[in-house]
From TrEMBL:
InterPro entries, A to Z: CENP-S/Mhf1, Histone-fold
Bias-annotated ranges (Basic residues): 103-113
Family to which this protein belongs: Belongs to the TAF9 family. CENP-S/MHF1 subfamily.
Protein known as: Centromere protein S
Superkingdom in the source lineage: Eukaryota
Record-linked SUPFAM superfamilies: Histone-fold
Residue spans of biased composition, Basic and acidic residues class: 91-102
Length: 123
């Protein structure tokens, strides 16, 4: 592994560890519990490894489909291992699709009204 890759991995691990620590702190405050350092470190390491596995799987799914870009369908395929995660991602995907449809309707409505205004001004 090159020095740059090792350095990037260490930065990512540090960022994941920091984020996990903050989440554990917040959850601990909400539930009046404390997480020892070893627990936070174990959760952070597990999270990092799982994300690394997810990234490799997503790349493999895209490559198998002869694409260079990971798609939402790849993410849904990955999430099938966990019913709760799969349901959550499916719901989010549907929400995003609905928002995109609504924004397209709004922008096409604006275009129509502009076209109508231009036609009226010509008359």
């Amino acid at each position: 592994m090159s020095v740059d890759k090792e350095e990037a991995d260490q930065r990512l691990k540090a960022a994941v560890h920091y984020t996990v620590g903050r989440l554990c702190q917040r959850i601990g405050e909400e539930h009046r519990r404390e997480f020892c350092r070893q627990t936070v470190a174990a959760i952070a390491e597990t999270t990092f490894r799982e994300c690394d596995t997810f990234a490799k799987d997503l790349e493999a799914f895209a490559r198998h489909a002869k694409r260079s870009t990971v798609s939402a369908e790849d993410v849904k395929l990955l999430a099938r291992r966990s019913t709760a995660l799969s349901n959550h991602i499916q719901n989010k995907s549907e929400e995003l699709a609905q928002e995109q449809r609504e924004s397209r309707k709004k922008s096409s409505g604006k275009r129509k009204s502009r076209d109508t205004e231009e036609e009226e001004s010509k008359e």
